[in-house]
Amino acid sequence: MTQQPAKLKKHRFYKRMTRGEKIFQVFNYIILTLLALVTFFPFYVVIMKSFAPPEDFLGNAVIWWPSRFMADYYGFVLGKGSEFMQSLKNTLYFVFVGTSINMFSTFIAAFVLAQKRLPFRNQITFVMVFTMFFGGGMIPSYLVSKAYGLLDSMLGLCIMGLLSTTYVLYLRNFFMTIPAELLESAQVDGCPDYKLLFKIILPLSLPSLATFTLFYAVGQWNMFTGAVIYLSDPKKLPLQVYIHRMVSAMTITGDAEELRNLYESGYQPPADALKATAIVCSTVPIVCVYPFLQKYFVKGMMMGSLKG
Amino acid sequence: MNFNLEQGVPIRKQLNRFKWYYLMILPILVWYIMFSYVPMFGISIAFFDYNAYQGFAGSQWYGFHWFEYLLDDQLLRIAFVNSLIINLQCLIFSFPMPIILALLLNECRAIKFKRTVQTISYLPHFISWAIVGGLVYSLLSPSSGFVNTVIKALGGEPIYFMGDSRYTRSIIVISGIWKGIGWGSILYLAALTGINQELYEAATLDGANKLQQVWHITLPGISHIISMQLIFYFTGFFDVGFEQTFNLVNPVTYDTGLVISLLVYNKGLKQAQFEFATAVGLLQSIMGMIMLVTANGITRKISEDNSLF
Predict the structure, then answer these.
(1) How far is A35 from chain B (nearest CA, A)?
(2) Is there a contact between A138 and B109 if contact means CB atoms under 8 Å apart?
(3) Inter-chain contact A222–B178, Cβ cutoff 8 Å?
């Protein structure tokens, strides 16, 4: 069989489209386009709000296009001493420290579990997998971390979220695809185990390690529940909790000097605009890493569905 | 039990060969015990009059007192009913959405267009519920929100959606669809590519139209994924995600929006009624397990291959 028959078949298939199918195709395009628009629309609205001058908000209607673009709100939200910047600092701590801890422990756990000859390997795996189905729940976990003295500590929160069992299993499955012959031949040549790790396994797994780093980092960036439960000091709260408080409390604080400038130049920054600005600022990083995420996550989903 | 031991080699020698590996994984196993297994035993405070200062040493056995107590609790009843209604609405409206999207994408012939739609539709999955909450507040704002602008343009009075408990459940369901439809479709799309294309050709030759093909080939082809997702779905039937409801429901709308996880949070962490909140959580997970087994059993009755266990 060559390529040609397939091509021919496809061609014939097109020609044979009935009128009903053509109508369906048109509807299909319309529905999918609508879906894409509906997904994008809320972002569009907040982006426009974040650039619109205060007078646009007096109209009491959607701002489709600002009468003029101004970036003053960004100066206010991202300015010195704003709560946004404080919580952003905390979130960056979680993203860097938390993700490093995540990756270090995930790598070790996956590497050990990928040793095909490790005695009691299945039993160790079971201890981990069991926790995916049973857990203590919110309150016992809270009381336990209180007993350990980890409450209200950012490092404590990172330790509590040490690793994700799912990612360990994915990475273990990847490690197990590295041909055993490759490792054995290196061993026969007298390569010690630790060298095996750094010279063969690490370079081979760099792309998938990058993927999991990205996944963990997005998880840390979006961290919410853990912070709500285990952190109470407002100075330690991450960005997402700040956004939640700002959206529901209807107040916002920011750079005092910027605020005075805004008032002096006759502006009353509308709360709506400032909220929109904070939302845009905390979404942009996700959108920036999104192309890289998207490249890998479908593959990740498949891996998970094949072997869990 | 497979202990992964080699025949004929002394156990001590085998263990010794892997001693560095055991040393590496030991801290991780200790972490699992400290943060997953110890809390599992902590569930037992649901049977105690827990003394927060002395721990279990100063606590008294209470038996099923808390469970009797919570059966009479008004708030729990509200949270239970709300969780159930929201999940039923999700089952009817949200659950089929990713399947429909996957079917539509599968019929789409323009590859670039299809990719673009997919890329856009996955994005909300990576946005936190706090942000989604902000977007919802912005869309539904009585002054500058899109929905109220439309209502005003049609001559209606603006509605304060987020403060009106009549709309809370719809907001939860619709925002859930918006966030999850694209991501949910990935699994179904993957299953769709596994269907043998010759079946469609044969059906076309037999004169089956598109709808008949979808009904007799496509849906049976992905039914194992659908039933798997459905079984998982039923496991969480007595609760609605904490992050979602925490960001979309406020005390004004508790009569329709209070769900079990919010109740556990409020009772346990806000009011420090640890035993009560743990008992609620325990009850919820037991009911989830019952649902899982029941759903799995029903699935097995209908079709042997599609059950999980």
Answers:
(1) 8
(2) no
(3) no
What's CA A133's distance to the chain center, in Å?
23
More confident call, B304 vs B244: B244
Could you give the CA distance from residue A271 to residue A277 in angstroms, rounded to a whole number? 10
Give the residues across from B61 on adjacent strands: B48
Mean pLDDT of chain A: 83
Q: Quote the tokens at residue A250.
A: 């209807």
A267/A263 Cα distance (integer angstroms): 5
Nearest to A36 among B31, B41, B117 (CB): B117
**B250: how many CB neighbours lie within 10 A of its CB?**
14
State whether residue A263 is helix, strand or coil.
helix
Domain positions in chain A: 83-239
Spatial distance between the Cα atoms of B309 and B304, rounded to a whole number of angstroms:
10
Does A32 contact B182 at a Cβ distance shorter than 8 Å? no
A248-306 per-position pLDDT tens digit: 765 445 555 666 665 565 566 778 888 899 999 999 999 888 887 777 766 655 554 44
CA gap A226, A157 in Å, rounded? 7
- Pick from B144, B145, B134: which is nearest to A280 by CA? B134
In this structure, whether the domain defined by A83-239 belongs to CATH 3.40.50.300 is answered with: no
Burial label for A16, CB within 10 Å (0-12, 13-18, 19+), is exposed
Q: Is B220 left (phi over 0), alpha (psi -120 to 50) or beta?
A: alpha
Q: Which chain A residues are closer than 8 Å to B24 by Cβ?
A: 108, 111-112
CB–CB of B28 and A228 under 8 A?
Answer: no
> Which helix (H) or strand (E) element contains residue B171?
helix B168-193
| Residues of B with Cβ-Cβ distance to A140 under 8 angstroms | 39-43, 45, 278
Contact B25 A42 (CB under 8 A): no
With CB atoms and an 8 Å threshold, state whether A57 touches B24. no
Token pair listed for B16:
């010794």
CATH number of this structure's domain B70-306, picked from the four choices 3.40.50.300, 2.70.98.10, 1.10.3720.10, 3.40.50.720: 1.10.3720.10
Model ipTM value:
0.87
One-letter amino acid of A20:
G
**Do A128 and B32 lie within an 8 Å CB cutoff?**
yes
Nearest CA in chain A to B184: A301
Chain A hits for B229, CB-CB cut-off 8 Å, are none
User: What is chain A's alpha carbon radius of gyration, rounded to the nearest angstrom?
Assistant: 26
Q: Which of A108, A119, A241 comes nearest B25 by C-beta?
A: A108
**Residue reference for tokens 């489709």:** A64
| A30 to A87, B122, B278: CA distances (angstroms) | 41, 19, 49
- pLDDT, one tens digit per residue, over B125-136 is 999 999 999 999
Which has the closest alpha carbon to B247: B144, B85, B135?
B135
Give the separation between CA A251 and CA A258, rounded to whole angstroms: 16
For chain B, give every residue range classified as CATH 1.10.3720.10.
Answer: 70-306
